[in-house]
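step: validate -> pass
step: tokenize input -> pass
step: predict -> running
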Amino acid sequence: MVNPEKTAGSPPSAPRRWARHVSRAVSVAILWPRLQLALKAGLAAGIAFAIAPFMPGSAAEYPYYAPLGALVAMYENVAGSMRQGLQTLVGLAIGVGLAFMLFSLGSPTPLTVALVMALGVVLAGLPKIGSGRDWIPTAALLVLLVGGHNPDTFSFGYLFQMGVGVTVGIVVNLLVFPPLHFRAAALSIAELRQALAQQLWDMGKALRESWPPEHQDWSRRSEALAAHARSVRLAVEKADASRQANPRRHLHPRDIDLDYQSLRDLERLTFHIQDVTQVLSEVIWADDTPFVVPDAYAAPLGDALSSVGDVLLAMEEENPERQAELAGTADAAISGLTARLGSEEHIKDAPSAVESILLSLHRMLRVAKPGPPAATAAP
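step: predict -> pass
step: emit ->
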């Protein structure tokens, strides 16, 4: 099946319009969580600073550390806020303890300060302390510089107000629209699937052109596709992390396991499409490649590439009949070429690259085409 592609001067094809729509949606899905996080950080910092003067004892003298704690705990997901806030407080406590160890040695000197700072950096390498590692030497130095004349009072106020801020930050992140990054993950998966389909269409178009093809952009996309696949994995992992300890996950359920399965399928497809890209690029432009694509196979092979691209795009549609129809068309094109290759003599001194490309297409189709529903386990 030949995919109708955009020609010079014609309006964009439906797949290209769809790709632009998905790209814009991905941009919005990425921008809004960042804006939402900024608004919640501002709210948490404001609340923390408002209640800080009412803290008991000497802690009320250091209200400016409360909004700092709120900012420290403001993370892109609820579980991350809890983890980062706790790690920060642990790091601060260790740093304060180091400062008191220095005071026990007498008045700070350049030598003792250097030793404590070095020990703080060593302790920052403790496992499972995460973001708290950066606060160990910082807290020790603050106690020395700011609370030197009254370290007990300063240390209590510093730790207490930071704890207040961390608590406020976690509560705000938990109660005020705790983020779920499901939409960004879904759109990223759709965008990668579209990019892979476009790569197949472009390679199919190149095979149908007079050689060497006029269009070469597709031959330079291999690394970009791999980078795109890595970014999709990060988006899915981010969506998975965003549902942990998040009460909104019950209101907006999503099958993350299915997203991971789609991701694994797309990573396999990316590998095979990269392989076809490299093979075709070498056949067309490399001088030291003995392999060829015989002229008689170029157009039908291009049609097979385009038909597999159609199958990839149809995976976004909730239309099993159409998916099955397109998969059948692609399977017939691949099987027909495979049978034709088996019945004809190979060109001597010029091995054909068609077998390699057909094998990759067959593997792509195994991943992409709809299969029978999984059997339900007996109770």
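step: describe -> DSSP finds twelve helices and no strands in the chain.
step: cleanup -> pass
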